Amino acid sequence: MSDDANEDEVSTQNTVRERADESRIKLWLLMGANRQLVTGVLAGSFFGLFMIGSLLEPTLSELLQTRGIIESLYAQMISALITGVILVVTISQLIISQQNGPLGEQRTRMSETLDFRDYIKELTDKPAPADPSAFLREIIDATQQRAETLDETMESTDNDDLRDEVDEFVDSITGNAETVRNKLEGAKFGTFDVVHASIDYNYSWKIFQIERLLADYEDDIDEEQHDALEDLRRSFAMFGPAREHIKTLYFQWELINLSRYILYAAIPALLVSGMMITFVDATTFTGVILGIETLLWVVAITFTITLVPFFLLTSYILRIATAAKRTLAIGPLILRDSQG
């Protein structure tokens, strides 16, 4: 089907999984799953792969007798860990620097925030909530109410095609709004739930469809219907920057958490690496456990511990990068791999 034909379809897939056409498990691992759980899965997978070394020849103890594997391996890990800690400190400094600035800049930020809250007050006829999930729910409620108003104004039209398209469009908006509102209910900022739910509100496609309806049926739409479409478009236009603002705050929140977790994990990782270099050689651990030589167990466990900071970094960056990719564009610019 051509792009033009797709653009004529009033309703479309709304959730991230439907738009991305990817498996539920993949998206769950990339975005939905707890990041500590993903870190644990990565660590467990690496540990299992490392233990496969017990099936290979020559054995690890034989290699250690001829090569300084442990010393070189853990020395490199210490260097990598120190570099990683420096990177974490740099990220933290960048985030903190965005919060600092002269009084004039802080006043401008406050003024712009209050102006946007005033816009939302005009849109919803009530003060904007302070809670991020409630804030987004209010905008979604406003879009649904204005969609219902549009549906009512179209009852007087004589154009059956216009009427059918608006009915389908309003049904799509209502269904999407109810789904996202339910996901936002009880969602707390600091978890991914708020951002994840907001990504499922496909506002970009809806803005485009309003613009298309205005253009395709320009001669069939009266002033009241035109105003209803414009009011609906403005309500969707408010959702875009609101979502982007909350998403940006969440990314900063997560990067700060990531920095803290990596620092926590780097300390035992550095300690383990130092102890392995200092105290362990081919003769330190002898015998077998569960049919596998003890030395292999020790190296597998300790090496996995040294990699935990990097598994943490991987799990968090996977979520942030995936969410950023799905929301690259703002407004009615729909990318093939983003779709608003």
Question: Would you spell out the secondary-structure blueprint of this structure?
Answer:
Layout: H1 3-7, H2 16-20, H3 24-32, H4 35-51, H5 60-66, H6 69-99, H7 103-124, H8 132-153, H9 160-184, H10 193-199, H11 203-216, H12 223-279, E1 288-289, E2 292-293, H13 294-326
Antiparallel strand pairs: 1-2
Helix pairs in contact: 3-13, 4-13, 6-12, 6-13, 8-9, 8-12, 9-10, 10-12, 11-12, 12-13
Written account of the structure:
The protein has 340 residues and is mainly alpha-helical. The two termini are 20 Å apart. Helix 4 runs antiparallel to helix 13 (294-326) and helix 6 (69-99) runs antiparallel to helix 12. 75% of the residues lie in helices and 1% in strands. The mean pLDDT is 85. A two-stranded antiparallel ribbon has the order 1-2.
Cross-sheet strand order for the largest sheet: 1-2
Unreliable parts:
none
The proportion of residues in beta strands is under 5%
Query: What's the mean pLDDT score?
Result: 85
Integer tally of domains? 1
Approximately how much helix is present in the residues?
A: over 70%
Structural class: mainly alpha
Keywords:
1% strand, two-stranded antiparallel sheet, mainly alpha, 340 residues, 13 helices, single chain
Quick overview of this protein structure:
Helix content is 75%, strand content 1%.
